[in-house]
Amino acid sequence: MVDTRTQPVSRAGVAAPRFTEKDLYGLAEKYGTPYFLIDEATLRRKVSEMEQGFSEFRGVFRVAYSVKANFNPSVIRTFASEGILFDLTAPSELTFVLKSGGSAGDVMYTSITETEAEYEEVLRTGVRKIVVASHNGLMNLIEAAVRTNVTVKTMVRVNPEVHVHAELRGSMGHGKFGLQFNGGSQDSAFSVLKKVLATPGLEFEGFHFHLGSQIEDPSCYAEAIEKLEAFILDARRQFGDFHVKTLDIGGGLPAPYGRKVPSPKDMGNKIVGQLNSLVESIGDRFTLVAESGRFLTAESTVMVSRVVNTKSFGEGKYVYVDAGYHVLLDSALLRHEYPVEVVPGGKPSPQKVVLVGRLCDPLDVFPTSVRSKLGGAEPGKLVVFRDVGAYSLVMNMPFHSQPRPYVLMRNGQGSYVVARKGQSVDRLYDEEGGDCLAAA
Predict the structure, then answer these.
(1) Looking at the predicted structure, is the pLDDT value of residue 14 above 60?
(2) What is the pTM of this model?
């Protein structure tokens, strides 16, 4: 059995999901390697951690799952059964949510393209809460609302333009996402809010902002909330009274990746007081929404690969596995340092161990966390990559004609089930156009 005493832990002290050596090897024998393995209990635990983190908020708090992080139906179905919201940005994501047991009434739709056809499609499917982030997008939404004859609960996405120390920043001067509070043009939050309030068929719902990913310093939230409060009070002086029913503060809660990071409780302790003060200041007991994709899913999943070769060089040793960045693209794009361990493990190697994949590409080298345990790596042994539940499955690609691997889940009853079938080479060939050649 894997030595659980050495498993990575979160700041809250909760260990990452544990799987026995027997189970890992048994699944490898049945489904081949590499494969992904999701733990349903961890998904549910992360929802609970977020809810507890904001429990002192004086109003309703809702968790929203950003489906872009992992749209596997088993993951969506698990979150739907938890009764949380879904943050979507494409009609195709809506299809996944609805077919996996989610409800259109639990969707917050935040488009980037904001086209009329897109809005009409999601409104006809039953979505009623839409976030707008441009003048053109608002005009398209108005037209779509007229064509579908529905009332749209409309939120305005703002760009607080605060400094964010994060892996990926979503708030910056003249950024891609959201509206400047007072930019002096039709694409300002001031102008768009004014139009929303004056348009029949639109019901103003509230505000949304997203500051970034892997945020460890909550001071950026405090600054954003302070700016938003000033904006609301100023807008009321000019437009008359309006009510804020929902405030979505976006994502950013950090996943640990084998190191200690602030927990939702740590973050909540730093900003809930200010959010409660905002409730008092504007006089609206709004629903608070915090989104997450990475925090909710990252720790739930491991990728299991097999050592297929080793090679010594000077003071070091290359360990080759049968996976590559085609199934873990964040390792190449963002240089994510995943916690990795050899199963069964061995004594720490006196040589520097470099973990590399099976692709013919010099970028196919896996950065590893300082908590990784690579001792005893020899051909035939398994290598477990932890915390890979976010943005790995959604970025799988068939480099070197590599078919997609199996995705498995340990469900709430402790049974291992298939969450996504592995792809055969023949099926990949047909999907890449081989069936068209056959038809010709």
Answers:
(1) no
(2) 0.93
